[in-house]
Amino acid sequence: MIKAIIFDFDGVIAESMNMKADAFAHVFRGQPEDIMQKIITLHLNQGGLSRYEKFRIIYRDYLNKSLDKHEEERLGQEFGDFCFEKSIKVPYVNGVEDFIKNNYQNYMFFIASGTPHKEINKVIDGRELRKFFRGVWGSPRSKGELTKMILKEYNLKKDEVVFVGDAPTDYQGAKEAGVKFIARIPPKGHNPFQSDEFKIDYKIEDLTTLNERLKEIDS
Question: How many angstroms separate the CA atoms of 70 and 32, rounded?
Answer without folding.
Answer: 24
